[in-house]
Design brief:
Blueprint lengths: L10 E5 L38 H13 L4 E5 L9 H9 L6 E6 L4 H11 L3 E5 L5 H8 L4 H14 L5 E6 L8 H10 L3 E6 L5 H5 L7 H7 L4 E2 L12 E4 L6 E5 L12 E4 L4 E3 L8 E2 L1 H6 L3 H13 L5 H7 L22
Parallel strand pairs: 1-2, 1-10, 2-3, 3-4, 4-5, 5-6, 6-9
Antiparallel strand pairs: 7-8, 8-9, 10-11, 11-12
Length: 344
């Protein structure tokens, strides 16, 4: 399945819920109740639709797999608060053509669920961890318990959900003082620490460009890094990967702000209430949830997916700056639309 620019679309990110048990500084407003999943009209392009159930998720994923989707990433909100997650993973694992199922989580509930999810068919996890210092972690997440996240990471390793990737969103003047500490983790652990540039989306946009720590700035602080060759035919992800001499793990950089990776983008996003997002910054999604709930044929679902693929923009920055939403404002930095509502 290719878009109009010839990019092969093989990756679907599925937000199973908007709900989350944290309020991270750059992701969700502190006042957000966390209700999500269709309770707010602004969060779903005005559909007013409730969250999809497992049956609808699986119908959409099966149609996508028949078109060439091979990788599924389950996101949120926080996917581990979704009550039917293990059953959903097992259902996805049974779909022909799906080669990899991954999960992005804040890790708070991972210790309790890692074994069950591995048994259901989950391959690996990405864990969001923006600080290794207890007090700073609590401040960044507005109440998160770093000890529980570390326990979750240990449980994931023990269950075989590997290689584990730690996602570190850097905010200038807040946690960029921990760059070296995170890099040092890879010396003894077979993990990938991934430094992510702060995305100009929702609260992230309100924080401003001055809060962004560019990938090049981080690389300059780690002068001993050695580039790692990646087989792009097998890994079309956006990360640039390096290794410290003698390290068991690696260090990745995801730099959407300073180095646009749109030309190699291979993904679609499905929101919890049934919108296909051709791009994270797409002003509005394409409704597939209504069709899935109503029991239309697989062919009709496939047609909607193809329409979303053909709507993929060339460059997220062009979409964000040129396509206004219904209020007439640019999609870039819309305060009423947060990262948690489109699955990151």
């Amino acid at each position: 399945m290719e878009d109009r620019l010839g990019r092969k679309i093989t990756y679907l990110r599925v937000s199973v819920t908007e709900r989350c048990n944290l309020r991270c500084l750059y992701c969700r407003p502190e006042s957000d109740s966390g209700a999500g999943d269709g309770d707010c009209g602004n969060s779903n392009g005005g559909l007013g639709a409730a969250a999809l159930d497992n049956e609808s998720f699986l119908r959409i994923i099966a149609a996508a797999a028949a078109l060439g989707i091979k990788k599924i990433r389950l996101t949120g909100g926080e996917p581990l608060v979704y009550p039917d997650l293990a059953a959903l993973v097992a259902g996805i694992r049974a779909i022909a053509g799906i080669e990899e199922i991954t999960l992005t989580t804040n890790g708070l509930l991972l210790a309790e669920q890692a074994g069950q999810l591995k048994a259901a068919g989950l391959d690996r996890v990405n864990i969001s961890m923006d600080s290794l210092e207890v007090t700073r972690f609590a401040e960044l997440t507005r109440g998160g318990d770093l000890k529980k996240v570390l326990q979750g990471m240990a449980a994931a390793m023990a269950a075989g959900l590997s290689p584990i990737k730690l996602n570190v969103v850097l905010v200038k003047g807040v946690n960029d003082c921990e760059i070296s500490d995170f890099a040092t983790l890879t010396m003894g652990l077979p993990i990938q620490v991934r430094f992510l540039e702060l995305m100009p989306f929702g609260i992230g946009a309100e924080m401003g460009r001055s809060a962004v720590v560019s990938a090049d700035e981080v690389i300059a602080r780690l002068p001993d890094l050695i580039p790692v060759e990646i087989n792009k035919a097998q890994n079309a992800g956006p990360a640039r990967v390096f290794r410290l001499p003698g390290a068991r793990g690696t260090i990745g950089f995801i730099s959407p702000v300073s180095s646009c990776f749109c030309p190699s983008c291979n993904r679609l996003r499905l929101t919890s209430n049934g919108l296909l997002q051709p791009c994270l910054f797409s002003a509005e999604g394409i409704d597939i949830g209504t069709a899935a709930r109503s029991g239309v044929s697989s062919e009709e679902l496939s047609a909607i997916i193809r329409r979303a693929v053909l709507a993929k923009p060339e460059d997220w920055r062009k979409v964000a700056r040129e396509i206004p939403d219904r209020c007439g404002r640019c999609a870039l930095g819309r305060p009423e639309r947060q990262m948690s509502q489109v699955g990151g």
